[in-house]
Amino acid sequence: MARRHPHTLDFCSPRLGASLRLILIGLGLTAGAAAAETKSEATNDLYATYGGSASCRGCHEAEYRDWEHSHHALAERYPAATQEDPAFIPARTIQIGTQSTSFGTNTGHYELRSAGLDGSNETFVVERVLGENPLRQMLIAFPGGRIQASEVAWDPRLNVWFDVYGDEDRKPGEWGHWLGRGMNWNSQCAVCHNTRLTKNYDSATDTYKTTMVEHGVGCESCHGPMAAHNQWQLVHQPQSLKDPTLTALTRDQMTETCAGCHSRRGEMTDEPAPGASFWDHYLLTMVDDSELFYPDGQIHDEDYEFTAFLGSAMYNHGVRCMDCHNPHTMKTKLPGNLLCLSCHAPGSKQAPPIDPVSHGHHPVFGFDAKGVLTNTDVKAYGPTKEQAGGECVNCHMPQTVYMQRHWRHDHGFTIPDPRLTKEFGIPNACNRCHTDQTVDWSLGYVEKWYGTNMNRPYRQRAETIARARRDDAEAIAPLLRMLQTDPYPYWRAAAANLLRPWAGETNVTPALTKSLSDLHPLVRQASVEALGPLGAGGRDDITAALQPALADASRNVRIAAAMQLAATLDVHSRAGQEYLSFLDRGADQPLGQVQLGDFAARRGELTNALGHFQTAEQWDPYSAGIRHELAIVFSQLGRSSEAVGQLEMAIKLEPQNAQFHYDLALACNEAGETDRVEPELEAAVNRDPHFARAWYNLGLARSGRGDDTGALTALIRAESADPNDAQIPYARATMLARQGDLAGARNAAHRALELNPNLSAATDLLRQLDGQ
Description:
- The chain has 772 residues and is α+β, with helices and mostly antiparallel strands.
- Among the domains are: 61-223, no CATH class; 457-570, Leucine-rich Repeat Variant.
- It is 46% helix and 9% strand.
- The strands form five sheets. Strands 1, 2, 3, 4, 5, 6, 7 and 8 form an eight-stranded antiparallel beta sheet that branches. The protein has a two-stranded antiparallel ribbon with strand order 9-12. A two-stranded antiparallel ribbon has the order 10-11.
- Strand 3 (99-106) and strand 4 (109-115) form a beta hairpin.
- Mean pLDDT is 91; it is low at 2-36 and 376-385.
């Protein structure tokens, strides 16, 4: 079975084994306790450069007053009677599925009683509280420095307890259960809810010594360490001198500082200082062939704000976070349409002018029928329910609820398009609001109001991406145009992502190779990742083309190149050291163990790799993907029966996954269970009729038992699914020759040589046919 490269580590998602120390010892790179001590000393020196938020109050009282009650300040805190008493007094119990959780107090502590790892109820003391509105989760301390976030949460507006997973009824032992690694605070929550946090995970003991400057998102989370500034001010006040300890951040630097937490991303380093390049510290999760985002860029899974914003026209025309948000209260600077009209008012020259009445075709509170502002009282501003359709954000920033309570605006500033809903299932704001109406009803109004204006690049791009996700080869040409000409770097990167299945085609490879030099690091990263499998598959020209990326100016590109060139990576090089550090950061999660295992496997260290994949499986036994990866290693080690067992488990977890059935067929063949091969291949093509390799192998399997008619049918289907694979017409040629159809065999052999002139087997077959 061939290894498929696992995706990069991503924030707030399963991070797919033994520790990194196994690899480091083998490479002679571990320095043991001395290194740990040096790291601790370095952390202490770093923390000494921070003054703490309280030190800002004296000189910045107004800003401090705005901040101290904000969601940033209250992102994490110790329990307080004024906030927690309503949740815990009086004692109460809630039932979620098969499990009950009780809440109460005991000797001055807040407690919850819920199912522990063995399934029986245990009492847990609340250590801290995570979040403020619209929900608060309880943090519970465990041995080894581990802290877990409760899945039951308190809604302070409705004064009720609820489960952030709804009715899922997650069980102990699952990755996402509140005692599992998916709800581990140290790894999943801490860095964005605290100021200058260091995770300090020890892979040898699977323990944490997590430290931070202060709880909550303090002033220095955004402004950087200020101890030197405080000292300078003490010495030089009240002189009006320029403080040399301060460096002003640019608008882009401020936005990328926000993006560190307001995006779904993988971490490459410890928390960066404010102003550092996002691309030197994070791997962004973005539109690809998965369901994390809709094809038009709308958020689907829990994706936060930055990614959609990065792909928006607003961002690409210079709008940044602080243009709309007060950085200290986190609230918008103006309410409702007044905020949008601060740039888009009729007559505006800085942005396309918009008349909210005529443009939106809905009544707008505060404006008359001609679009004239009639209510300038900001405090009184607010639409009735009937007027909600006239709010700009309700059409262009639709909301999605996460964690059962948290409604979040999409920051892609997308255009409602019911046609995309009808053709590709992409949601539109019209039907999100008018839930009692059909898509055709919404489409009728949109076409009536906006006509041909809807046929704009936004729609064409979404259609292209939706078709690419369906493996439609018709998407290749428009994807190439996106890659080469789209003015927005985000969408050029998305095109590179989606071209991966066709990366080896003659018109695609040069375009991706050229994009390795794109001005934006996200595009360069996506191009490296698209071309990487070709290099791993033996394309020396691709491997050579990727080598310069190891020295790219941006770390995200260097990490991507190191990942793709892992088999020959010099671990002592800059990129090699950065990649090992990246792997170390994720070693406390299942996906991180999979990445460690993949790294070891690609370097030929299969026994090492097996340990990592087995650890990943222990940490997340219900992940079909992990079992699939573990099966591949078992197969590579010649332990075919164990590979079969893992694939059987994977199929139980994901019965509709065609790849799993295909790989099970190959594993059964390796294990000598040949009677199972053909049924599993048939299961694979039934689940994915475009699975060319499965059809090809099904043709060979049918031929092996003498069913030439069935074999040829399968090979024709294979060739239709992948018309560029020379092996398929060659196999068809051999079968036709055996049946005596010499003309058909010659045609098939010639087709194989058209696709691959170096296919010597086809040349030999033609010589034999011509000699008859």
